[in-house]
Each structure stands twice: as C-alpha cells, then as structure tokens.
Amino acid sequence: MHVKGMDPPSYIMLNNMGLLRARASKALALLENCRLCPRSCGVDRIQGELGFCRTGRHAKVASFGAHFGEESPLVGTGGSGTIFFSSCNLLCSFCQNSDISHQRQGDEVNARELAGMMLDLQNRGCHNINFVTPSHVVPQILEALSLACETGLHIPLVYNTGGYDATETIRLLDSVFDIYMPDLKFWEEEPAKTFCTAPDYREVACAACKEMHAQVGNLSIDENGIAIKGLLVRHLVMPGYLAGTDQVMRFLAQEISTNTYVNIMDQYRPCYNAKDDSRINRRITPAEYKEAVEAARTAGIHRLDSRMSFFFKMP
Q1: Per-residue DSSP letters for 189-227?
Q2: For residue 17, is pLDDT > 50?
Q3: Which has the higher per-residue pLDDT, 3 or 123?
Q4: Which domains does the chain have, with CATH numbers?
Q5: CA-CA to 58 of 20 to 30 Å: which in 8, 116, 131, 133?
Q6: CA proximity to 307, closest of 80, 120, 84
Q7: pTM of the prediction?
Q8: Phi and psi for 40 in degrees, rounded to 5?
Q9: Who's near 202: CB < 8 A, 6+ residues apart?
C-alpha cells in the first residue's frame, strides 16, 4: 500500500498531550513485580532482581547504528537506525546472536543515554529507530522516548520482536510505535518448547500479532519506498518444516490480512546449541525455501519482501 506524504509519528502527539511520560511511568511501575512478558517472573527489577531476561532496572545495549540488512521498506538510502538490546525473553537454542542474547554482551544505559542514541541515529539520516529485541525493556524505551521527543525526535519507531509479547504490554504501546515487526517462529507446541522453552508461543505470538495489526494496520509505504506505518511479519524457514510455515501463512491470511507484508527468511544456519538436535543441525535446502514461498502464495499472501532468498527468484 503506497501513500503520499507523511504525517508526524503518533508518539509526537502523545508526547505533546503529556501522555507519553505518563505511559512511561505506568510501564516502569510494572518492573516492581515484572509481568511485562509472558514469562511473568514476578521479580522486582527496580531493586535489581533478575528474572528470565536477566535484566534489571536499566536496559543493556549491545550496539547501535545504521543497518542496511533489514527489509527493503526499512532501509531506503539512509538505513534503519537499529538499537540492539542485550538479552532476550526467548533465548532460542539456535540463536544467531547468542553473544548478545545468552551471554548478554553490552553496556547498561540510562534513559538519557538511550535517548541520545535515538537522536544520533536520526541525525545520521536513518529512516526509523529500530528497537531490536525490545520485549523485556519496554518501560526503559518509553522513558527514553519521552526525553528524545523533547529534543526533536520525529522519525518512525520500529518494534522488532521475536513475537513472544504480552498483549497487555503491546496495548501500552498503542500510538507509540509506528511499525511492528514480529517474528512468527513456530506453530506447533513441541518445537517451541524444545527450542525456545515457550510451549505457548503460538497462542501468545498470534494474540500479539492481532493486537499489533489492530493498532497500525497493514504496512503503508511512501512514494520513495519507505515504510511509514503498519505491520511487517518475519518468518524464518526451519529445516524439516519445523516452523509450521503452512499454518503460519494461513493464520496471517485468514486472521490478519492477505495484504500483510511478509519476509520469508532463508538465513537459518545452525548456531549456538543447534548441534545438540539433529533436526536443526543443518541449513535449509532450496526445496524447503521454495515450498515456504509457495505456502504463502497458496494462502493468499502476496506482499513478500523483495530481498527474498537467492534460492528463489520472484517472477
């Protein structure tokens, strides 16, 4: 869906009304008995107690910068302004960024420092601020965003998540995030439990995806090919069809929209502890990737990211 022009991101109006700071305060209070994500650890992160994500009062950032490897509508000419948060609320056994997620490499940052990163990325000419793995640090993002707004932040925000998000937390982000980019990793309970310790992944991720779409709708792209607002879904093709691609695509077509923008990703490779399970200790085949693309088309999904696999040329 292409649109002309660009209205200011909705978080600016929220800030002008004094509601963004209030939203941040509400989210920060949730850290005292943390149930921000479906893990519902109940720890007091304000006091430094650590739950599944092993993150306390302050977020840790592994790196930030202009990224040109994201989906086409996010990258444009200036890149996507990515901020990579340390740790994760999924901790997949095959994680390709295990140094950041499992080993938690990175530095703690306060709200002012995080706001400064956002503004720096905007000043570099990035088209958006892309928060990578934000599920466990939503309060810290909101706290920093309020400060960044006061200093002139005005580009769209991207919520780049593994999909394991509590619907209640996503509702806190209504009118804050312009673009939601969740993964839909697994359909069946067994692989989600085995590889992510999240047997309820499908239920949680589908509910979160519905809420995200209700807030922002289908992905809108301006006349320059840059995403303005909407939902963009990622799906990583797994060896042996373990991701349940057929069912994921049918869900998107039937319960979200056939106009959902989808990136069917081919870059799975056995990382971290993938060697411990023979089912995922290999890369996918061209046939597996092609079948995934055909599953999307059969379901009625037709907006596929143009940077699709070298395995498969779009007609």
Answers
A1: HHHHHHHHS-TTHHHHHHHHHHHHHHHH-BPEEETTS-E
A2: yes
A3: 123
A4: 2-53+60-304 (3.20.20.70)
A5: 8
A6: 80
A7: 0.95
A8: 45, 55
A9: 186, 187, 188, 189, 192
